[in-house]
Amino acid sequence: MSDSPAPSVETITGPIGDPGATLMHEHIFGLSPEILWNWPDIPEGWDLEVRAHEAAAKLNDLKRHGIDTVVDLTVVGLGRYVPAVQRVAELTEVNIVVATGLYTYDALPPYFGNRGPGSLFGGADRLAEFFVRDITEGIGRTGVKAGILKCATDHLGMTANCERVFRAVAEAHLETGVPISTHSHSASGGGLEQQKLLARLGVDLSRVVIGHAGDATDVTYLEELIANGSYLGMDRFGIETISSFENRVAIVAELAARGHADRMVLSHDSYCFNDRFDADVVRRRHPNYHLLHISRDVLPELRRRGVTSEQIDLMLIANPRQILARREPYREAGHDHR
In whole angstroms, what is the distance from residue 136 CA to residue 157 CA? Predict the structure, then answer.
């Protein structure tokens, strides 16, 4: 019998052993702090207790549909407010993994944009320092430790500021061993550009999820991402303006038939509450954009197309467990990989 410790996954309430069935790319709250501070009477409204109970009810319904854990990839740039998510965690049995990182397609928040390499005032880049602190000490004064890193590029590609975030995420990853999940733009093959940079920075690409890969229908592109070692985030089920339900299930079924179920994870990229969009409009335009779509609609359709229960378990259970399991930092951590 091995003496090595059982793998553990960092959640908002502390480490757990097995996350069970996991949705790898969701959001609890997307908030606009300056709007809420200055116009608190906006129609969307923000009352922490009301919104926390609403979110918990959605998660509890998700639990009844067989999902045990959600990964909340809300980071700076998306309105991360961990104390509110802590309140949700008190009201649900669903495990919540929270993230650190920074979400931008180009511009950085002025705090970072005016400091660091290439900025108006120069100086040291504190991004990696902040990310590592979130992972090792906790976010803000909550004591909640991040269990995953998040970075993004979109249609603009790897801009100078996006590259700066990726470098900081890679540095924090090397120092802590925490996995990386990205937002990518499949239409322009952005996942390959992300992989190229991360590999150059010393990141083991098998510890990276290329997010929104499920927007693509190009099997050649997706198999190249897999060949490079990464997991594919088939994680926008319900957002059918980018890719239809038919295309999303078809590409997962095709990749599973080609033997790649061990490199895919599933999710919706949905929010329990998001003040950036009109909820009524979202419901009309995206009726399947909710936490239960995979359980109710996607999994039955995948099974109908020949995806086996074993393959579904890989995508929902085994792969997330492997991605999120706490790993030792790299031997190279502390060296300059830039």
Answer: 30
The CA–CA distances, whole Å, from 3 to 7, 203, 279 equal 12, 28, 51
Annotate 135-157 with b (16+ C-beta within 10 A) or e (fewer): beeebeeeebbbbbbbbbbbeeb
User: Is 199:151 a contact under the CB 8 Å cutoff?
Assistant: no
Q: Is 37 exposed, middle or buried (0-12, 13-18, 19+ CB in 10 A)?
A: exposed
- Closest by CA to 73, choosing from 163, 142, 169, is 169
Residue 45 is predicted with a pLDDT of 83
* Token pair in block for residue 182: 């990205």
Q: How far apart (Å, rounded) are the C-alpha atoms in residues 79 and 140?
A: 14
Give, as one character, the DSSP assignment of residue 230. P
Residue with tokens 């909550």: 142
Q: Which amino acid is at 316?
A: L
Q: What is the mean pLDDT of each run of 10 residues along the chain (338 residues)?
A: 62 96 98 91 87 98 98 97 98 98 97 89 92 98 98 98 98 97 98 98 98 98 98 98 97 98 98 92 94 98 98 98 90 45
The amino acid present at 216, given as its one-letter code, is A
**DSSP H or E stretch at residue 255:** helix 245-257
Tell me the residue type at 207: R
End-to-end CA distance of the chain: 40
Do residues 128 and 100 make contact, with C-beta atoms less than 8 angstroms apart?
no
- By C-alpha distance, which of 58, 62, 30 is closest to 46? 30
Extended strands (E) in the chain:
9-11, 14-16, 22-30, 69-72, 95-101, 148-152, 180-183, 208-210, 231-234, 264-266, 271-274
pLDDT at 6: 58
> Structure tokens of 242?
């980018």
Q: Which residue has the tokens 């003040």?
A: 275
